[in-house]
Amino acid sequence: MDAAWEKRIATAWDEFDTYGEERAEEFRERIDELVRELPEAGAVGPFERACAFDSTGHSDKAVPLYQEALARGIDGYRRRRTTIQLASSLRNTGRVEEAIALLTPELDAEHDELDDAVRATLALCLIDADRGREAVSLAVGALAPHLPRYQRSMANYARLLVEPE
């Protein structure tokens, strides 16, 4: 995997919306062609294939590929993306408790630009698990730093939703 390959995979994803539902299989084949250029035992291939299935409405087919990518040791930025996307796919396939267990440790992971995606995905999972107060707390807490005013009060309200009386 080199910079040229990374650029080609990024271009494929940039053009995803031009395929539409009727050409989803064609898009997945494009990703497969690029993945075939990678070492077979690598972790990026299963990740990219999972993304292609996920993005074309096949969370059920994406789950085992995301799991394979994690098992093969995907790392860096793609590891966190894999975790978020696997949790979302687990949620979409009715495995919400697994999704919550997968995402919860990410709240304490090293912070990066994916923090809000972790919180948003976890909030959706918590809603599906009938844990609405926790979900709203996460969502409001993630939103608070982005507000032009009321950041402190919104962060406090978010905290108070889940703190014991």
Description:
It is built from nine helices and no strands. Helix 3 packs parallel to helix 5, helix 4 packs antiparallel against helix 5 and helix 5 runs antiparallel to helix 6. By secondary structure, it is mostly helical. It has a domain of 93 residues: Alpha Horseshoe (Serine Threonine Protein Phosphatase 5, Tetratricopeptide repeat), CATH 1.25.40.10. The radius of gyration is 18 Å and the shape is elongated.
Brief sketch in words of this structure:
With 165 residues, the chain is mostly helical. 68% of the residues lie in helices and 0% in strands.
DSSP helical segment count: 9
- Mean pLDDT across the residues is 96
**CATH top level assignment of the domain at 3-95:** Mainly Alpha
CATH homologous superfamily classification of the domain at 3-95: Tetratricopeptide repeat domain
CATH topology of the domain at 3-95: Serine Threonine Protein Phosphatase 5, Tetratricopeptide repeat
* Helix coverage percent: 55-70%
Main sheet makeup: none
Q: Roughly what fraction of the amino acids lie in strands?
A: under 5%
Question: What is the global morphology?
Answer: elongated
Order of helices and strands: HHHHHHHHH
